[in-house]
Fold this protein.
Amino acid sequence: MAIDVNLGDANGQVSSNIYGQFIEHALDCIEGGIYAPGSVYADDDGIRKDVVGLVQRFAPSVLRFPGGTIMCQYHWKDAVGAKENRVWRKNLIWGGELSPEFGTAEFIRLCRKIGAEPMLCINMASGTPEEAGDWVEYCNGTGNSYYARLRRSHGFEEPFHVKYWCIGNESYSEPDMGIHHNVDCYIRDAMEFIKRMKLTDGSIKTVVVGCGEKNWNNAVLRKLHAVTDYFSLHYYASTKQGRVYEPFEGERQFQEMIEEISGCINEYPDKVQDFNPWYRFAPRQDKIKIAVDEWNIWNYENNDTYGLKPVYCWRDALWSASMLNLFIRTPAIGMANMAQMVNVIAPVMADEKGAWLQTIAYPLIYYRRLMTGERVDVRFDSPVIEGTGQIEALSVAAVRNLGKLCVAVVNRDFGRNYTMRLSGYADGSGEGDVTVLTGDGWDAVCSRDKSCVKETNIRIADGEIEVPAGSICLAVMYEK
Ligand code: AHR
């Protein structure tokens, strides 16, 4: 079947921060997965070289840490300075112990090794505004203040320059520790944390907690919009029922949620002018962006270690690529972090025998290489996958970058091939190369010994892309 795709003009830069990742002190995401001093894989900093090598293939732009839910009990001072003086605690959230050995400095080192911008999440549940402000000072302070000097005494002369700071995590969630599941409590306390943190370093960017609930989002934006740079939204799709197309079932609802939040953001000025000078720090200077700072497929009701150890299949890679298409197409989205990077609902797996990639790593690798630059408008009518009621077979996004037009097409239908007929892009020659990624069936998985992902490359001359069933096609076309 042939589908006409009309490509419009380029209309703004896609944020490279949509290619972010997240790590948490949960099971073996960090301990064993990333940090394994003494192991054959570790470098001099105790960080696994094999894992870094794989992560560099998809080069996350931002890395979020230390949680997640764990931040409810996380005290940064436990995990800085000499290792022998660090404080171990029981991991109240995910079980086992909360090791302080991979703390702020080790996290910054990891970010530098993989080229990611660090993003820290502060503890609003059992921490204080003062503790959060001190963390900002420890990371970014340049003068003679106690915490800037403390960092230097730990061997780090230069500031860490941490720009992104999450003001809590999923604070609406009643089962989590803390009192902030009440939106008024969240707003009241978030403001005090932000004041202390922005007074310490006025250049930091704050990420406040949003969710799928309209009343929460409206209240948070109404009261905090002047001091908020990003609005967080977490999204986990499910595969609990075992239906082939199940993760795609929530796609439309998620898109509607994004549209609703961006509508709400649009009610506020792009740049805040009217701000009481007695706050003594500058208000927001740019439009608020949505940060989907946790996203993935996760069956959290699974009793086995909270379902945190899934083996992802090829269908899940198509879902991940579709999410990236959505992030590219949506100007309101300024950041997105796949949760989590290693071992826990993760694209990278690592154990004592080595490290390997799951299926969901492949879209990240190819998109990071090709799908950056200016967003190009895409118009087409997608057929629906037979028997699913409303799931669209095709997901498409396009960007323009350095004289090239890159179009990503995901055919989520495992029973049908399509021909995409591209038109409307004024300078496009219609000539180019297409990388086609396929798996060996929807339920194919990668293992430590073998990847199920197959890459083929084809030339196109007439702007028509043949898109096989269950595939990701990335076309690169050149200007005339
Ligand atoms: O990523 C796993 C968990 O999912 C995080 O700790 C929490 O923020 C979310 O509910």
User: Anything to note?
Assistant: The mean pLDDT is 96. Residues 24, 67-69, 169-170, 234, 294, 339-340 surround alpha-L-arabinofuranose (CB under 6 Å).
